[in-house]
Amino acid sequence: MGSLTVRNLSEEVKKRLRLRAAANGRSMEEEIRLLLAAGAAEAPLAARASAPPSKPAPSEAAARQVLLIIGGGIAAYKSLDLIRRLRERAVAVRVVMTRAAQEFVTPMAVGALAGERAFTDLFDPASEFDVGHIRLARDNDLIIVAPATADLMAKMANGHADDLASAVLLATDRPVLIAPAMNPRMWLNAATRRNFARLVADGVLTVGPNAGEMAESGEAGTGRMAEPLEIVAAAEALLGATEEKPLAGKRIVITAGPTHEAIDPVRYIANRSSGKQGYAIARAAAAAGAEVTLVSGPVTLPDPPGVKTVRIESARDMLRAVKAALPADIGVFAAAVADWRVAQAGEQKLKKDGSGPPRLALTENPDILATISKLKQQRPRLVIGFAAETEKVVEHAKAKLKRKGCDWILANDVSAEGGAMGGDDNAVHLITATKGEPKVESWPSQSKDGVARRLVARIATELGGS
Ligand code: CTP
Questions:
Q1: Is the beta carbon of 365 within 6 A of some atom in ligand 1?
Q2: Which among 111, 144, 378, 402 is placed 20 to 30 Å from 175, CA to CA?
Q3: What pLDDT sits at residue 24?
């Protein structure tokens, strides 16, 4: 309505409005809205009584708004599906397209799916008049850049603002989620690595890229844009309360943290696990609507809200607690279980008695992941393990998947250089063997929350969720 009113005004009035908006540091639309509101407040009572109620319907007021920026890559076609998926979830979508994006999908198709026209030009007077790039940057709860091309990422990392998309990204104070998509060599290029690291350090959130076949024939590697549902899951987690709960009605049991194996009442065998990855998965699963039991070794993290947390010490306690949490649809075994325990833990503190260090006879702990994977009854439909490796990460993880009999394994590098143990970030390879030969997907280094959200989205897809 606002835009119609403005277009019908004389040039002189438009000019005065423009000057007034600039003087007040507002966009044109904001200025006009304020003027109209002030005018309506002063209007005679009779007119106000007959006017329709101005308060928006509750659903309208509560609507979540996303600004989707479509970059110019072949993956732009997936953004059409992304718009549809977001709108299905009652998320309002406004779209900005770069010039290159319009070579892959048309503003017409985008506008039809979004329910309003796509914005394309920084210097288009009509767009600036209607909304303005500052409002585009701010009037939303989240900005998604999908596909985030190498060029768009470079612009973002370096603070360019020479087109509508980059100007909006520079002007925003909203969270930004990027879904990179490009040729694998471009993704591996040192400049892209630098730009990506810069963006992550600047607080930009990421989803993908995935590994696999590229649209260009004969090309494979990391660079495929995350699937629309993965982007939606990441967006929903950022938007807070999800209306759609893709794991609603599903039970999931998750192990996390180290175990402590007593040597005597004061000493124990342990490892450096912080529990952060398992806790992040528990939070993401709960946000997706699952009924979550988290069986946790000794860590310093608080119980995640909405999650049943069972605190244990030893591997044997952990196995008991996991079995007690069955039946479950999904098992995720992220704990760094101590492989061995002392066969006979001392009942009293071991003393130095002058005969040298004590000899500790070790015995093997139960393998919780393998035990649950091989259950004849009550085996969860999807059993997911982790593989903590310091070398030949994928090779060892594939062997572990077979040996333990689980369906998926997330392999991570826990060497000192890998930094996953105790750190906040994690670079994992997802190895899936649900259908035939194991397939490997290498996910880029991202926060443990990012890994968790992505895993939960994958689980939801696997179990036929939305
Ligand atoms: N795991 C488990 N119980 C154990 C040992 C491991 O449930 N007693 C699970 C872990 O939670 C993880 C997976 O098995 O999901 C692999 O753990 P990892 O420490 O990488 O492998 P190990 O079985 O200990 O093998 P290795 O030490 O030879 O690498």
A1: yes
A2: 111
A3: 57
Write down the H helix ranges in 378-437. Answer: 393-404
| 156 CA distance to ligand 1 middle (Å) | 41
Q: Is the pLDDT of residue 59 over 50?
A: no
Domain end point (choices 186, 206, 239): 239
Of residues 143 and 58, more confidently modeled: 143
Model confidence at 145: pLDDT above 60: yes
Ligand 1 probe mutation, 368, 383, 394, most atoms within 8 A of CB:
368
> How many A from CA of 368 to the centre of ligand 1?
8
Q: Is residue 148 part of a domain?
A: yes
Q: Are 322 and 417 part of one and the same domain?
A: yes
Q: Could you tell me the CA-to-CA distances from 390 to 206, 296, 400, 426 in Å, in that order? A: 26, 24, 14, 14
Task: Count how many domains the chain has.
Answer: 2
- CATH number (domain holding residue 333): 3.40.50.10300
Q: Is the CB of 164 under 6 A from ligand 1?
A: no
- For residues 264 and 219, membership in a common domain is answered with no
Say if 6 falls within a structural domain.
no
The model's pTM: 0.56
pLDDT tens-digit series, residues 314-339: 999 999 999 999 999 999 999 999 99
Asked whether residue 329 falls in the same domain as residue 426, the answer is yes
Shared domain for 226 and 317, answered yes or no, is no
What span, in angstroms and rounded, lies between the C-alpha atoms of 68 and 114? Answer: 10
Residue 107 belongs to a domain with what CATH number?
A: 3.40.50.1950
**What's the pLDDT tens digit per position in 2-38?**
454 566 676 667 767 776 666 555 566 767 777 777 6
User: Are 149 and 280 in a shared domain?
Assistant: no
Ligand 1 centroid to residue 336 C-alpha, Å: 7
Q: Nearest Cα to 248, choosing from 465, 31, 29?
A: 465
Domain C-terminal end among 239, 259, 289: 239
pLDDT of residue 35: 77
Q: H or E stretch including 18?
A: helix 11-24
Q: Is 16 among the domain residues?
A: no
Per-residue CA distances from 344 to 271, 317, 357, 358, 360 (Å): 20, 16, 16, 12, 8
* CB of residue 163 inside a 6 A radius of ligand 1: no
User: 262: helix, coil or strand?
Assistant: strand
Residues 192 and 312 in one domain: no
Burial 209-221 (b: 16+ CB within 10 A, else e): bbbeebeeeeeeb
Range of the domain at 224: 59-239
Whether 386 lines ligand 1, by a CB cut-off of 6 Å, is: yes
Residue found under tokens 């993704």: 187
Asked if residue 113 lies in contact with residue 140, where contact means CB atoms within 8 angstroms, the answer is no
